[in-house]
């Protein structure tokens, strides 16, 4: 584990010790939006020459009476951590908001639904060149991008899915899809699971999905979150990836293997 990973894990543990809920996440995202537009304030809250207590005190004075005491406590914990820049601080604060939103979904028994929906939204964006280009465009305003995603999913997904898809438009991990990917990794971590990404030619029915999930859990020796993408190009069978391991059993793959063998004759 790198020093950065260790610091992130320590902060997760600290914030995890604070009793939070979905409202906390929403307020944290509002604080993030405020700091995104205030470079001087970002620098002050991440200033390494200032003491932890001074930075936390500044955050408390800034937010007292404007957000809940719980949210103030989370922000104070985040600003006490060492950050390389004001932008890194804001990204770290948003990460805690995402984790808290996902934790609220887990507590309500909706985490699996949110995972599946976020995965589907990211796939939809990837498969729509115009939408994907608009979300990547630096010339397109952030509010406009969020409106595009909102029109795509409003009323069709869980409230947390809608909230996090809107946050992912900011693309702190370079692209919308990579940012959603980071959310899915956090969700799997909260659930103590590994992510299994399956690609199939036709949608799996409930029985097929259950049997596949059970087989994968037996393979990895632990709980698995199964995210399935339908791609007619695979023709038949299934392709599953877990971490760096890939399990391939598709007609397309077998045809490609046969083609290569013929070429090498």
Automatic annotation (TrEMBL):
<keyword id="KW-0139">CF(1)</keyword>
<keyword id="KW-0406">Ion transport</keyword>
<keyword id="KW-0813">Transport</keyword>
<comment type="function">
    <text>This protein is part of the stalk that links CF(0) to CF(1). It either transmits conformational changes from CF(0) to CF(1) or is implicated in proton conduction.</text>
</comment>
<dbReference type="GO" id="GO:0045259">
    <property type="term" value="C:proton-transporting ATP synthase complex"/>
</dbReference>
<dbReference type="InterPro" id="IPR000711">
    <property type="entry name" value="ATPase_OSCP/dsu"/>
</dbReference>
<dbReference type="GO" id="GO:0005886">
    <property type="term" value="C:plasma membrane"/>
</dbReference>
<keyword id="KW-0472">Membrane</keyword>
<dbReference type="GO" id="GO:0046933">
    <property type="term" value="F:proton-transporting ATP synthase activity, rotational mechanism"/>
</dbReference>
<keyword id="KW-0066">ATP synthesis</keyword>
<keyword id="KW-0375">Hydrogen ion transport</keyword>
<comment type="function">
    <text>F(1)F(0) ATP synthase produces ATP from ADP in the presence of a proton or sodium gradient. F-type ATPases consist of two structural domains, F(1) containing the extramembraneous catalytic core and F(0) containing the membrane proton channel, linked together by a central stalk and a peripheral stalk. During catalysis, ATP synthesis in the catalytic domain of F(1) is coupled via a rotary mechanism of the central stalk subunits to proton translocation.</text>
</comment>
<keyword id="KW-1003">Cell membrane</keyword>
<dbReference type="Pfam" id="PF00213">
    <property type="entry name" value="OSCP"/>
</dbReference>
<protein>
    <recommendedName>
        <fullName>ATP synthase subunit delta</fullName>
    </recommendedName>
</protein>
<comment type="similarity">
    <text>Belongs to the ATPase delta chain family.</text>
</comment>
